[in-house]
Amino acid sequence: MAHWEYQRTVIGYHGCDKKLVEDILSGRMKLEASHNDYDWLGRGIYFWEHGPDRAFHWANEINKRHPERVRHPAVIGAVIQLGTCFDLLDVRFTNYLGRLYPKFRTVLKKQGLRIPRNERSHSKDLDLVKRKRDCAMLNWAIPEIEKEMGVNFQTVRCVFQEGKAAFTGSAVKSKSHVQIAVRDDSCILGYFLPKT
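User: That's the sequence. What structure does it adopt?
Assistant: C-alpha cells below.
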C-alpha cells in the first residue's frame, strides 16, 4: 500500500565501539537488531536521525557505565530508506496505538501478565528511559496493525524528549532527538564513517 511507504532517505547514526565500526565498514559484521525489553520503539537496529553528536554522547555514556560493551566510543553513519515506516510523528500511527491499547491490556490480562511500566534507569533519570511499556506495546501492536493493513513495517520513527530544559521555563529538552528503529535491514543502503 503506497500510502504507508515513505519515499524518503535519511542519515542515521549509531553509537558503538570503534572495533564494531571497523568490522561493519570492512564487511566482517553487520549491526544486529536489539531485543531489549526497554527498547522504546520495539525491536530493531537503533539510529539517531541526523544526530552524530547524540550518538557519540550515547556511546560515551555506555563506556562509563559498561566499559566492557564500549571500550572506545565511536559512531557509524548509515544511509536509511525509511520504506514502510511506522512514523510516530504522524497522527495516523499514534491514533492506532491509542485505539489498540485497551485490547493490549486485555490480552495481557488474559495471559495473566502485568502491563509493564516505563522505568528509571538510575536515580536521577527523570525521563524514564527504560521504556518497557512502550516496547511491549509496539512489539505487540505493530504485528496487529500489519495484519489489519496488509503491510510489513520496515522502520519505526519517533521523537524522544529527554534531558533537562534547554533553558529556564523551556519545554525543549537538552537531549531530545529523533530515533529510528530499523526492523528490516534491507532499508540500510550503506554505511560510512562520519567526519569528526
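The chain has a mean pLDDT of 92.
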